[in-house]
């Protein structure tokens, strides 16, 4: 099945020699007596000699430990593997040791630009001082190791300060973005019973102000365990806010006013660090618990060996605090990066605003999403001409598959000499399965490699390994960053059902993947969620293949492909498109014909839709993923509120359109 690879970029010898992974290979040779022929040889060692590999990452990265580990891994089992037993660490300490070093004191640690207030910058010393003061306030409020501190904050410096302060005490952190409604936030936070809530009064986005005080009151009232609210005045310097009941209130300024020493509570490697959540598109979100040591180790590895970042880099990934990419962004502090935060609409006041911010702040790493890049392409943005992006060495993308056309656009219109780091992993593992590497080439539409220490494979329905064919993405060996457990899932039933039922003992992630043998490494392409994949006459196809063709048309803003296979009937493939002409109620016949011809030629004759319909918008999760599975269930007759959480949906009204359309479509199928 391997096609002719379209090579878009190959690193220069200078970049290869300066890359941290080259330093790591040299270190392995000198310290461990290990020599590898190339990346794939190194990857194979990393997933077969797990203990040796992860011990090398511990030593190479300089993990700060108050007590060393007794053994790297107790047993190679999933779930239930225990890593680095005996070790005592603290995530916040690894993030902030530079705050105590004189040569780092005045260097910028966090830079934020917001629609709500002027540009803000914290030096490493200032960050350390604020964390120390906030931690002392939390301690005075009775927060102890294991207590939960939660946030309803945008991507601003206060979110980083509060998170590091909580985790420095061994408290457990969790956050939600302030664009979420009260019901969605409570679905998350009620499960973990927080003691302290840090929140904003509102925010600005796209030039509009959003007052969240009423929502915040509902959230506070819905958390019986809540004792204290720490308010960040974001819209108004002195907001009029009354917390319900016995909940005490203070401002963020009060919480960081009194100087205190910077201290850290040593905790076991597997002590809970934070709780993150699945999208919650159906039912309550899964409260996924990551550990201090596992998240640290995975992301120290990722920063150095895959993302090519380290001391002095300026790291920007556009994200909200409700997406795992926020966690990935702030963890780059452990690598010595300056974290760049944009609390704004990335397309306001113009489509290229994110690129503009990256240029002004001299970002060396710029992370975004396929949806944003697609919007820039359709808006005619030419970032390389419009902005000075000479500092950007790496452009990251995740959230959904990035098309080959988007890859080409990046190299034509952003920069011909940069690493395009497409990554695919998830909130659940706290890691990327398929990722980037600065010493490997980039092929159009393909992620460069499988992550080191990540035994990612493609399997068919019978559990046989596939290469160069589309199959289920599985991980066959444990990873330190895998969830410790789900909060409240005392017997582990929900955890096992989520990942290990289909292939017992193997992590099934729920994506279709094709692993492609290339000369330097095995690259990868994600074809969409396996539970929404189209199976026509025995030929499986990810929806992203259809979107790649359809969304090339300038008349189309967005699209959604849904396979409605009924029991005992052949599949009915419905294509929904959002037309650029907002007044159009149906798809013009000539456009329909062109679309079908393009899908026939570019995807396969079997995957030509039965019909195409115009829809006002495509339902998406808060992190931008198309809600294929909930829409499929709605079109099969399920009520929207039974299959989707509206507060986890970026545009919940879009679900109602599909509910209204379901009877119309049903009549066609009868």
UniProtKB/TrEMBL annotation:
Its EC number is 6.2.1.16. The keyword Ligase applies. InterPro entries: Acac_CoA_synth, ACAS_N, AMP-bd_C_sf, AMP-binding_CS, AMP-dep_synth/lig_dom, ANL_N_sf. It holds the Pfam family ACAS_N. Residues 103-479 form the AMP-dependent synthetase/ligase domain. Gene3D superfamilies: 3.30.300.30, N-terminal domain of ligase-like. GO terms for molecular function: acetoacetate-CoA ligase activity. Residues 39-93 form the Acetyl-coenzyme A synthetase N-terminal domain. Keywords: ATP-binding, Ligase, Nucleotide-binding. Belongs to the ATP-dependent AMP-binding enzyme family. This is Acetoacetate--CoA ligase. It comes from [Mycobacterium] wendilense.
